[in-house]
Amino acid sequence: MRGFLAGTLLGLTLAVLPQVARAQSTVYRVYVANESSDLINRVAFTPGEGAVVEKEIAVGVMPGDNDGAHGLSVSPDGRYWYVTIAHGTPYGYVWKFRAGPDTLVARTRLGLFPATMGITPDGQFMLTANFNLHGDMVPSDISVVYTPEMVEITKVRTCLMPHGSRVRPDGVKQYSACMHSDQLVEIDVGTFEVTGRFGVAPGHERPMAAHGEMEGHGGMGDRVCSPTWVEPGLGTRANLVVYVACNRNQEILEVDTERWEVSRRLATGKGPYNLEVTGDGGRLLATLKGEQAVAVFDLESGREIGRVATSRPVTHGVVASPDGRYAFVTNESVGSVRGTLDVIDLETLEVVATVELGHQSGGIDFWPGPPAPGGVR
Amino acid sequence: MLRPADRLGVGAALTTLVFLAGCAGGASRATVDDSQPPPPAEPPPAATVVQPDPPPPDTAAAGVPRTPALTPGYVPAVQIGARVAEVRTEPAEIVVEVADSLAMGEDVEMIAYDAAGNPVPGVRILPNIDSRFAALEDGHIKGVGEGDAELRMAIQVPPASGTGPPEIRTFSALLTVVGPPVVAVEVVDPGVRFFTGALVRLEARALTRDGGARQHVEIVWTSDRKRLATVDERGFVTALRPGAVTVTATVEGEVTGALSFEVEENPVTAVEVTGPSRARTGDVLRYTVTASDAGGGVVEGAPVDYAAASFETRADMGASIYPDGAFVAERPGLYRVTATVAGRTGQTLVEVVDRGMEHEVIVTGRGLVADRPTSDLWAFTGNDGRDYVYTGTHAGGQRMLAWDVTDPANPVLTDFVEVDARVVNDVKVNANATVAVITREGASDRKNGIVVLDLADPAHPVIADTYTKDLSGGVHNVFFQGDILYAIHNGTLDVHILDISDPRNVAEVGRWGIEKPGKYLHDIWVVDGLAYVSYWNDGVYILDVGDGRWGGLPTAPVEVSSFAYEEGNTHVAFPYTNADGHTYLFVGDEIFDCEDCISRNGVPGDGSRGFIHVLDMADPENLREVARYEVPEAGAHNLWIEDDRMYVAYYQAGLRVVDVSGELRGDLYRQGREIAWFPTGTPDGHVANSPMAWGPQPYKGHVFVSDLNSGLWVLRVVPKRKVPVS
């Protein structure tokens, strides 16, 4: 009880006085999915002290097969976290856990290889990209889940290999990238219909008919974008632009979603994979899967202001703390070598903590801690 | 354009707009209905709390300023939803054929109604189907397999409280997927005479245009002369008076089949039952029933009903007798076997004793693997004359381990092969012991495929080739047949047929798979030109891959038959002909998703379930399930049968050894046919004291068992020693 009261009081204090959150006692927490361990790690990072795995949560049901914990998202109110169980038989699931005690609340069957999730700001809807990366390439879907009841209410067919599902800050549109179609697809969250489609093939970036071709590449020839992620802008660019990671073409496209045009290009290193915009909208973080690094961009100037080497290869996921001070980065690593989480100080652009996790550490999200009593954070 | 946040005057803070996601209406960007009242000054919590508040963590969390949600107005599409009392389909009951489809909006309409039963126009209804029997694709309902499904229809409505984000209400309609139309009905002749007073069960086969028989079909039975013979809804005929009768089976109202027979005055005055008077539990007994008339003559073709009864008072009767007269007991005891012919009975007694085959398992040797989980194994004799076992590794494994087991008491880890993978699930060695293949899943570049090993020095296998073409989704299992390798691909969920005659130049030469949405493929085993393919919920498929009787070739399989069962999750299949000449297919299912299997609400799950189905394979084209072996508290995994003993790696229940001699019927576990078991857990394992037996292989008098948590075991099954009592 003493701990409960202490945590509550501190939580309330932090909510009222955000600056106090930077006090030394601040603990930052993230959840990480380890795809080849079927294990979730909850990691606590205390500035000046380091990062520790404070909890391991086993997920999946198959002892003899990998269930494949892939994407991980925390609900906006911090009450729950969700993990996609991607591998399936053949359809995958999303599991819902109560954050904190980390107990299973519900499981919902989705499509083929459910990967990343975008959650509306009210937490009501989760839009999950069914990546369907194996076998014959056929158009796949975004699953729409009504989270209070964890029921899939519809599937929206989009393109080949949708990935990187994200909902923009106003909750009105959801975006996903189509790795094999070289497209960016927009879904209206009110109607759950495709309302925009944009080709991202290098040299052929262009708006496409919303209900047009799902399969074909937007461009020609060998140069492809192969987009793996789309991240909405924040701050002054909120609800106006999204950033698309061109994994093969080593660049990030800033796409103006009002005008449906490329407004900027940010050159990256090899294999930009996941993206994150800091809460103030000022910085863009990109994991470079092929370089074992994270690139940090200043979005005012559009310049890369730093590239931070990570502790292990196959750098995968990235999330920034809401105060914009730290980035938390997962590294899958290779084979039996475990993955890691690196904490990057976004002021010094240095790795300030590293902790070893399970195998193939990937999906990650920030957990601000439990809600205060009464349900209001 | 004014953004929603601006309209509300609350800026762009992330959580101030929590309600708008659900409010956006129409094809345009979301706006707030101007006609709605402004949000109140003191809004309630944004989200409906559906779970109790969790306790806080033991340390302070990084605080994030949160802005309370505002109460929205609701766009028309949501407002209209408030009027909806029900959503129904037209037609109310949707019927679609397997492999056929119905167009939403044309063949099937979704209509919203208010409480007075009036249609409510303008409601946005979102359809969805989550079923193994049907799918919703491109605006069409597609029939996948026979069975009932649910068409779920969701609408958005304002919340009951009047504030907060819109909610979803769901409605459903029954969706029935039926097989292809029945074109003929065959009433099977039971091969008995219809004596007055007899009760005879008839069976009808509803045949479809492709020659198959529909499983789920309603049959209406009628008798043309009910005064002479009646027939009930299950096809039981009661013969009443002598005369000619025709019983008709009608399917789908118009397709009929019939059987005509003559009801005869019952000539039987006595019934004699002869047969074994003593047996062991699990023995399948056959009795001779002789019906005779008043003159003492034998009456041929008499219809016989069997029954067995125990003299015990326990609730569990302990024995069964099947309609074909096969008797088998699960418990020792004295039983009465009764045969009834048209009201006349005969009986005999049989004393059943314990099967008495208890053995014990002795540990000969161990190959501890404590640093990573162990997967499948393969035992063989290398070209150097020594014996080896290769084991795979799992969940961050990356390696195949080579063990020299020439001295079974001292397995020696001679080497390992490391590949880019997190799961080396399967390992197989060809018949000449020149080549091995290991499977890859979880490769860092997601290309996976297989790795071919050169076994010139079997103690130190080396990689000859890595083959990934069209196998990027990962390979779960493989099997050799000569120079052909059958690979189970997680991506296409087809069997990829590879020519591996040149280990350094592997080439795909064929592919086979079923055409069903939602199919899931797991394993293949090949014996004497027949392949047994485990297709999860679609059951086991037998393919001619060189047997020739059905025209199949190793590179061009021909389907012989298939068998699916209610439990689904068909995981592995192993054919076997025992010493008495009975040929069975032992099929294991692997069930992970049961209520007890997984942890929930803080209560740990206790792992998988599943059992071994025993299918009579005397006719490979007509498989019949006749028996099962089930350890109730655990989940079956791989199995192997040799010398009439079935070895089952039963996951958390360790190794199980089962006597599968003679005819098999009923529940082998309860019959005491399990002769030994061994818990493969160990304190020094990867997971301590936690048996998780993966695969067994009897070889040269020992049983090699791989265990996920402890590695390799070398075991010997011996008769149980008598412990002298002093």
Note the main attributes of this structure.
heterodimer, A: 377 residues, mainly beta, 4-stranded antiparallel beta sheet, 29 strands, B: mainly beta, 4-stranded mixed beta sheet, 2% helix, globular
What would you call the structural class of chain B?
A: mainly beta
Rounded mean pLDDT of chain B is 88
Please identify the structural class of chain A as seen in this structure: mainly beta
| Total helical elements of chain A | 1
Shape of chain A: globular
Order of H and E elements of chain A: HEEEEEEEEEEEEEEEEEEEEEEEEEEEEE
Count of alpha/pi helices of chain B: 3
Residue runs with pLDDT of under 50 for 5 or more positions of chain B? 1-72
| Strands of chain A, count | 29
Radius of gyration of chain B: 32 Å
- Helix amount of chain B, in percent? under 10%
Order of adjacent strands in the largest pleated sheet of chain A: 12-13-14-15-16
Oligomeric status: heterodimer
Largest interface: A-B, 112 and 113 residues
Average of the residue pLDDT scores of chain A: 90
How would a textbook summarize the main sheet of chain B?
5 strands, mixed
Beta strand count of chain B: 56
